[in-house]
Write a structure and sequence with these properties.
Blueprint (H helix, E strand, L loop, with lengths): L1 E5 L3 H11 L4 E5 L3 H5 L8 E3 L6 H6 L7 E4 L4 H13 L5 E4 L8 H10 L3 E3 L1 H13 L6 E5 L4 E7 L21 E8 L2 E3 L12 E6 L4 H7 L10 E5 L3 H9 L5 E6 L2 H10 L5 E4 L5 H6 L7 E4 L4 H13 L4 E5 L6 H6 L4 E3 L1 H13 L4 E7 L4 E7 L20 E8 L2 E3 L12 E7 L3 H8 L1
Parallel strand pairs: 1-2, 1-4, 2-3, 4-5, 5-6, 12-13, 12-15, 13-14, 15-16, 16-17
Antiparallel strand pairs: 7-8, 8-11, 9-10, 9-11, 18-19, 19-22, 20-21, 20-22
Length: about 450
C-alpha cells in the first residue's frame, strides 16, 4: 500500500513511524527540511522536501499511484487544498486533519467528497470524547464501548484493596466468568495473559465485559469506595477544553481555569452558561483551594505544556482529587506520567493515528483504539461469511502470539468467548493485540 503523509509535525511523524515498520510504501512530505531531518535515516520511508500544496511536489512524491493521501499539517486550509489536489492528480483516497466542527456535519460529507476530500479527522474533538469517557468513572484509566455499548473495555489500576491480586487467572471463576482479562500492563511490559498468570499490585489490567457486570469488576478491583464524579475542573482553555466542556454529561458541573484574560472572554462565548470560566493560573494552589478543589472529584490539565499538565495533576492529587487526566503530547513523557501515577493520559497523536490506521485496513473494522499506556491496540472486526476465523473454534484458529479475542457482539448482545467459541458471519469481534499487529490479523477476517 502506497501512503503519502503530508506534514512532518507531531501527528504526521508519529504516524510515519508507526507505519514504516509495516512494510508499507510510506512517503513523508514537508517543506521544512529541518523537520524531515529529525526523522533520521533508520526508518523505512521516503522523505520529500516540498510543500503539500505544490503540484510539482505532489507529482514528485508519486501521488498518482497513492492508495492513501493523509494531510495532517497544522493548517486546516492547506490540508483541504492538498487533498483536493491529490485526488485530482490520482490519489485513491484522501484524509484531511481539520479544526472546524461544521465540516464534520453529515450534510457536508458529500460536498467535501465531491471536492476530493474523502475523510476528515478532528483530533481535538476525538481527544475531548476520550477525556469525557475517562472522567465518567473515577476508578478507571480507560473506557471504550463497542457496538453502541454492548461490550465495554475497562482499564483500571490494581491497588492493595483488589480482591484478585496474586490469584492464578484459571482460578478466577471458570467458564462462567462475566469478563475476559485481555491484557496486563506491568512496568514497561504489556502481557497477553494465560491461565497461569496472576495479577500483581500496581498492574494496569484491561477487562472486556458487558455493562451489566461493571459493578462486579469494580468490586473485584477493590474500587467500590471511589467517589462518583460530579464536579470537574479543567486547567487550560484550549480547543480540547472547549469540546470537553461541551461533551460533559448534564449532571457534571464544570469549571475552566485559564490564565489569558482575552481567552477567558472568548471561552464564555463558546461554552454553555452553566460552565464557570475563571481567569487565573491553574498552578496556583491558593487559587485552586479558593475555587473549591477540595470538592472536585476530577481535574483535567489541558495546557500546551506536557510538563505543566503532569505537575498540575500531581498537585491536584495531593490536594485530594480522586481522578486526574493530563494531556501529554510528548511521547517520551508518557511512561514517566504512568510512573508518577497521575491517572489517565490523553495524547492527540495516538488518537489521530488510531483513526487513520483504521482507514488502511482491508477488513471490515469499525473501531481501532491505541491504548496510551500499553504498547497495544484494540480493534472491532466484523466477521465475513466464509472467512478463516469461522472455520474452527477460536482455540484451533491459530491466532498469532500477542493477539487475543476479548469478546463478541452477536445480534446486538455482548458475549464472552472461550476457546470453544465458534464465530459466525456478522459477529462483531473485539480483538486485542500487542504492537501494530492489526494488519496481520486481517487475513483471519477477510
Amino acid at each position: 500500500m502506497k501512503i503519502i503523509i503530508a506534514g512532518a509535525g507531531n501527528v504526521g511523524t508519529h504516524l510515519a513511524k508507526l507505519l514504516s515498520g509495516e512494510k508499507q510504501d510510506i512517503i513523508l512530505m514537508d517543506e521544512d527540511d529541518e523537520k524531515l531531518e529529525k526523522m533520521g535515516n533508520n526508518l523505512d520511508l521516503m522523505l520529500v522536501n516540498y510543500s503539500p500544496t505544490s503540484i510539482n511536489g505532489l507529482k514528485e512524491a508519486g501521488v498518482a499511484g497513492a492508495d492513501l493521501f493523509i494531510a495532517v499539517t497544522p493548517d486546516e486550509s492547506r490540508n483541504m487544498t492538498a487533498c483536493m489536489l491529490a485526488t485530482n492528480l490520482g490519489a485513491k483516497k484522501t484524509v484531511a486533519r481539520i479544526d472546524n466542527y461544521e465540516y464534520l456535519l453529515p450534510k457536508n460529507k458529500e460536498f467535501f467528497a465531491k471536492l476530493g476530500v474523502h475523510s476528515l479527522i478532528y483530533p481535538e474533538m476525538l481527544a475531548a470524547r476520550e477525556i469525557v469517557d475517562a472522567v465518567k468513572m473515577s476508578w478507571i484509566r480507560q473506557w471504550w464501548e463497542f457496538a453502541g455499548g454492548a461490550l465495554v473495555l475497562i482499564g483500571t489500576k490494581m491497588r492493595e484493596t483488589a480482591e484478585i491480586l496474586n490469584v492464578p487467572l484459571h482460578e478466577l471463576g471458570g467458564r462462567n466468568i462475566p469478563f475476559h482479562l485481555v491484557a496486563i500492563k506491568r512496568g514497561n511490559e504489556t502481557i497477553i495473559p494465560n491461565g497461569n498468570d496472576s495479577i500483581k499490585l500496581n498492574d494496569i489490567v484491561y477487562f472486556t465485559t458487558t455493562k451489566k457486570y461493571i459493578p462486579y469488576i469494580r468490586k473485584i478491583a477493590g474500587k467500590e469506595n471511589y467517589a462518583d464524579i460530579r464536579n470537574v475542573m479543567i486547567m487550560g482553555g484550549s480547543r480540547i477544553a472547549v469540546r470537553t466542556a461541551q461533551y460533559m454529561p448534564d449532571y457534571m458541573r464544570t469549571k475552566i481555569i485559564e490564565c489569558d484574560f482575552n481567552r477567558c472572554n472568548r471561552l464564555t462565548e463558546l461554552v454553555d452558561d452553566d460552565v464557570m470560566v475563571i481567569n487565573g493560573d491553574g498552578r496556583d494552589v491558593e487559587l485552586l483551594l479558593e475555587e473549591g478543589i477540595k470538592n472536585i472529584e476530577a481535574f483535567v490539565a489541558l495546557t500546551g505544556s506536557s510538563e505543566t499538565n503532569i505537575l498540575a495533576c500531581l498537585a491536584a492529587k495531593r490536594l485530594g482529587v480522586t481522578k486526574t487526566v493530563a494531556e501529554v503530547e510528548n511521547v517520551d513523557y508518557i511512561s514517566m506520567a504512568e510512573s508518577l501515577d497521575i491517572g489517565a493520559v490523553i495524547n492527540k497523536k495516538f488518537i489521530a493515528a488510531s483513526h487513520i490506521y483504521q482507514m488502511m485496513l482491508d477488513a471490515d473494522v469499525s473501531n481501532v483504539k491505541c491504548l496510551t499506556f500499553a504498547n497495544a491496540d484494540v480493534a472491532e472486526f466484523t466477521v465475513k461469511g466464509g472467512s478463516r476465523i469461522t472455520k474452527a473454534p477460536i482455540k484451533d484458529i491459530g491466532l498469532p502470539k500477542g493477539a487475543t479475542i476479548g469478546g463478541l457482539i452477536r445480534n446486538g448482545e455482548g458475549i464472552m468467548v472461550t476457546g470453544n467459541t465458534q464465530l459466525q458471519e456478522g459477529d462483531h469481534v473485539v480483538v486485542f493485540c500487542l504492537g501494530m499487529m492489526i494488519k496481520k490479523l486481517e487475513k483471519y477476517f477477510n
